[in-house]
From TrEMBL, chain A:
Any one GO cellular component localisation term in the record: transmembrane transporter complex
GO biological process per UniProt: ATP synthesis coupled electron transport
Source species, domain of life: Eukaryota
Protein name in the entry: NADH-ubiquinone oxidoreductase chain 4L
Alphabetized InterPro entries for the sequence: NADH_UbQ_OxRdtase_chain4L/K (IPR001133), NUOK/Mnh_C1-like (IPR039428)
Entry EC no(s): 7.1.1.2
Protein's organism: Eolophus roseicapilla (Galah cockatoo)
Main location: mitochondrion
Protein's membrane topology: Multi-pass membrane protein
From TrEMBL, chain B:
Catalytic activity: a ubiquinone + NADH + 5 H(+)(in) = a ubiquinol + NAD(+) + 4 H(+)(out)
Main location: mitochondrion
GO BP annotation list: mitochondrial electron transport, NADH to ubiquinone
Membrane topology annotation: Multi-pass membrane protein
InterPro entries the record matches: Complex_I_Subunit_2, NADH_DH_su2_C, NADH_UbQ_OxRdtase_chain2, ND/Mrp_TM
Regions crossing the membrane: 16-35, 47-67, 87-106, 143-162, 169-187, 193-210, 231-252, 272-295
Domain NADH dehydrogenase subunit 2 C-terminal: 281-318
GO cellular component entries: mitochondrial inner membrane
Gene name linked to the record: ND2
Name of the protein: NADH-ubiquinone oxidoreductase chain 2
Length: 98, 319
C-alpha cells in the first residue's frame, strides 16, 4: 500500500519542483499546476477504495470540478498575457518591478 | 463580488478540509477578473502572478490535508496530527497571506491592480487563510511561525523605505501587519483576530481616501489637500494610527501583543519587533509629511476636480 502512496507523493513533489523551476514559458507552469492537482486527485480516489467507505467517492469529483475551473482561468490568463505582452515568455513580465 | 463573499463564507464555516479548499478556490477565481478588469499590461501581469501563487498555495494545502487524512483517518480541520503536513500547511498559508519568505508576489500584484481591488486583496482575501490559521494554530510549529513573523515585520519595514508608489507602500505595511498578527497566534489567537479587524478597518479607510483623491504616487499625495481638505487631515490621523502611535487605535493591538509576549517570557522577541516597526514608522511619517504637513513646490489653487462620495472613514481614526 505504501508503494502507491510513494507514487503519488513523488508525482506531487516532481510537479511542484517543475512549477518552482519553470524558466521560459508560462504554460509549463500551468501544466505543472495541473499535474499537481492530478496527483492529488489520484491520491484522493484511493481513499474510498482503501477504507471501504463509499460516501467519500464524491470528493475527487468535486476537486476535479474546481480544478477544471482553475485550469480554464489559467488558460484565460495565458491568452490575456499573450495579447498584452506578445508571448508567454516569463522575462516579459517585468513591468511591475520595485 | 458576490462570489467573493460566498467563498469567504464557505471557508470560514467549514470543518472539512475540502470545503475550506473550495472556498479558497472560489475566492481566487472570483478576484482574478477583478484584478484584470482594466486590460492594462500591468493588470494582466498582476493577475498572472496572483493566480500562480494562489493556485500553488491551494494545491499545497489540499495535499497537506490529504497526507494528514491518509495518516490519521479523518478530515477535520482542527485535528492536524501529521507533522509533515503541518509544515506544508504552514508554507501554504504563508504563501496565501504573503508572509516572508513568500511575500514577493504581494507588492507587484497590489501595484498592478486598481485601488479598490487592492483594498479587497489586502483585507478580504486575507480573511479566509487567517481563519484556517486560527483553526489549526494549536498544532503548527510556533518557532517557524515566529521566525516568519519577525522576518515579515523586518522585510515589510525595510523594503517599504524606498518606495514612492502608494500601493506598494501599503503592500509592505500589510506584510508587516501580517507579521504582527502571526507572532501572537500560538499564544492568544483572539489578539490575532483583533489585530486583523483593526488593521482591515484602518486599511479600508486609507484605501478609500486614496481612491477618492486618486493618489497613486507620493507626488500626487502632496497636492491632494486641494481636493478635499477634511479628508486629508483624517488621512493623516489614519496613517499615524496604522503606524501604531499611542493615542490612536492602532497602538492597541501592538500594546496587547507586546504584553502577551512578555507574559510568555519572549521579551527579546517583543523588543525586536518593536524596534523593527520603527522602520515602518518612517515611511508612514513620510506619507503623513507629504500629504498634510508640507505644501507642494508649485502653487496650486483650490481645485475641485470631481464629486467625492465621502466614505464614513472620518470617524475611524477616532475609534
Amino acid at each position: 500500500m505504501s508503494l502507491i502512496h510513494l507514487s503519488f507523493y513523488s508525482a506531487f513533489t516532481l510537479s511542484s519542483l517543475g512549477l518552482a523551476f519553470h524558466r521560459t514559458h508560462l504554460i509549463s507552469a500551468l501544466l505543472c499546476l495541473e499535474s499537481i492537482i492530478l496527483s492529488i486527485y489520484i491520491g484522493l480516489s484511493l481513499w474510498p477504495v482503501q477504507n471501504q467507505a463509499t460516501s467519500f467517492t464524491l470528493l475527487p469529483v468535486l476537486i476535479l470540478a474546481f480544478s477544471a475551473c482553475e485550469a480554464g482561468t489559467g488558460l484565460a490568463i495565458l491568452v490575456a498575457s499573450t495579447r498584452t505582452h506578445g508571448s508567454d515568455h516569463l522575462h516579459n513580465l517585468n513591468l511591475l518591478q520595485c | 463580488m458576490l462570489s467573493l463573499a460566498l467563498g469567504t463564507m464557505i471557508t470560514i464555516t467549514s470543518n472539512h478540509w475540502v470545503t475550506a479548499w473550495a472556498g479558497l478556490e472560489i475566492n481566487t477565481l472570483a478576484i482574478i477578473p477583478l484584478i484584470s478588469k482594466s486590460h492594462h499590461p500591468r493588470a494582466i501581469e498582476a493577475a498572472t502572478k496572483y493566480f500562480l501563487t494562489q493556485a500553488t498555495a491551494s494545491a499545497l494545502m489540499l495535499f497537506s490535508s490529504m497526507t494528514n487524512a491518509w495518516s490519521s483517518g479523518q478530515w477535520d480541520i482542527t485535528q492536524l496530527t501529521n507533522p509533515p503536513s503541518c509544515l506544508l500547511l504552514t508554507a501554504a498559508i504563508a504563501i496565501k497571506l504573503g508572509l516572508t519568505p513568500f511575500h514577493f508576489w504581494f507588492p507587484e500584484v497590489l501595484q498592478g491592480s486598481s485601488l479598490t481591488t487592492a483594498l479587497l486583496l489586502s483585507t478580504a482575501m486575507k480573511f479566509p487563510p487567517t481563519t484556517i490559521l486560527l483553526l489549526t494554530s494549536h498544532s503548527l510549529n510556533p518557532t517557524l511561525l515566529s521566525t516568519m513573523a519577525i522576518m515579515s515585520i523586518a522585510l515589510g519595514g525595510w523594503m517599504g523605505l524606498n518606495q514612492t508608489q502608494t500601493r506598494k507602500i501599503l503592500a509592505f505595511s500589510s506584510i508587516s501587519h501580517l507579521g504582527w498578527m502571526t507572532i501572537i497566534i500560538t499564544y492568544n489567537p483572539k489578539l490575532t483576530l483583533l489585530t486583523f479587524y483593526l488593521y482591515s478597518l484602518m486599511t479600508t479607510s486609507i484605501f478609500l481616501s486614496m481612491n477618492s483623491t486618486n493618489t497613486l504616487k507620493l507626488s500626487t499625495l502632496m497636492t491632494s489637500w486641494t481636493k478635499a481638505p477634511m479628508l486629508n487631515t483624517t488621512l493623516m490621523l489614519t496613517l499615524l494610527s496604522l503606524a501604531g502611535l499611542p493615542p490612536l487605535t492602532g497602538f492597541l493591538p501592538k500594546w496587547l501583543i507586546i504584553q502577551e509576549l512578555t507574559k510568555q517570557e519572549m521579551t527579546t522577541t517583543a523588543t525586536i519587533i518593536s524596534m523593527l516597526s520603527l522602520l515602518g514608522l518612517f515611511f508612514y511619517l513620510r506619507l503623513t509629511y507629504c500629504s498634510t504637513i508640507t505644501l507642494p513646490p508649485n502653487s496650486s489653487n483650490k481645485m475641485k476636480q470631481w464629486s467625492i462620495k465621502k466614505p464614513v472613514n472620518t470617524l475611524t481614526p477616532t475609534l
